[in-house]
Amino acid sequence: MNTSNSPKTLGLRLQKIIAEAGLCSRRQAETWISDGEVRVNGRIATLGHKADPTKDAIVVRGKLLQVRSTSRNDPRATFLLNKPKGYICSHGDPHHEETIYDILPRAMRKRRLFTAGRLDKNSEGLIILTNDGDLSNRLSHPSNGIRKIYHVNLGHPIEEKILPKLVMGRELEGDFLHFNKVLPISRKGNALKRLEIHLGHGKKREIRRLLESFGHKVERLRRVQIGGLKIKGMPIGSIKELNEKEIDLLFHS
Predict the structure, then answer these.
(1) How many CB atoms lie within 10 A of CB 76?
(2) Which of 94, 170, 195, 242 could be 246's S-S partner, Cβ–Cβ 3.0 to 4.6 Å?
(3) What residue spans of 154-243 are helical by DSSP H?
(4) How far apart are CA 1 and CA 95, in angstroms?
(5) CA-CA distance, 230 to 178, in Å (whole number)?
(6) Taking the chain, what is the end-to-end CA distance rounded to the nearest angstrom?
């Protein structure tokens, strides 16, 4: 077994190995590496580290990585899932929570699909599942600014004068959070209880965190559109494979 831990070791970059194993996107793999959650031959890996998945022992978040074949048996495929509330976007969880992979048809569970962009456990709506690493990177990279639209139900109405402040944004815990656009869906007197929120970026729990900072708890959060693809006609829990035309729509608003 190779015992070298130098980033210059011949092989593939760790984030590529992890993504191709179907655990997550390359971007998420980079986060895990930065957080010290990846080990190679018993030592904590760093960004830039390379390895040989056929020779090195790669442990990701406490589990030994299993090398999967990327041959003709697993051709490129991309799916759109209408995620129900209560499921996490992960292949596995140490707390044994239900994941979105548990609701996939049995034939799909063996495929090395991973999410391109996530929703938290209590959120619903559109999720992209793919085994195409290049597509996942294009969808996840913030420079591409893929527009995502969410419908949000609040615990109590919000004053209209706060809406421009949500677009202006504010810094919270080291992150600058803001919405690209906020539109009212329903009104109650001079206040609003349902909002349509547009994002061209995305930080962890950004919508919930920003609204909570203004004293508003989110009761329901649903992603209804990614690029030009809409949730219309998709029941909760349903999944469909995207054709090339539909994939192209992801990059158009």
Answers:
(1) 11
(2) 242
(3) 163-168, 206-213
(4) 32
(5) 23
(6) 49
Q: Which two tokens stand for residue 83?
A: 């995620």
Express each pLDDT in 142-163 by its tens digit: 667 889 999 999 999 999 899 9
Tokens matching residue 201: 């970026």
146 is written with which tokens?
Answer: 């893929």
Is 120 one of the catalytic residues? yes
Q: Which CATH superfamily includes the segment(s) 12-64?
A: RNA-binding S4 domain (3.10.290.10)
Of residues 62 and 209, more confidence is placed in: 209
Q: Report the CATH fold assignment for 78-144+229-249.
A: Alpha-Beta Plaits (3.30.70)
How many other C-beta atoms lie within 10 A of the C-beta of residue 150?
A: 23
| pLDDT value of position 10 | 65
C-alpha span between 167 and 95 (Å, rounded): 36
Quote the distance between the C-alpha of residue 250 and its chain's center.
15
- Tokens 């996840």 locate to 140
Q: What is the pTM of this model?
A: 0.75
Q: Sign of dihedral through CA atoms 165, 221, 147, 31?
A: positive
Element (H, E) at 114: strand 114-115
Residue 96 has pLDDT above 80, yes or no: no
The domain limits of the chain are 12-64, 78-144+229-249, 148-226
CATH class of 148-226: alpha beta
DSSP-derived secondary structure for 171-209: EETTEEE--SEEEEEEEETTEEEEEEEEESS--TTHHHH
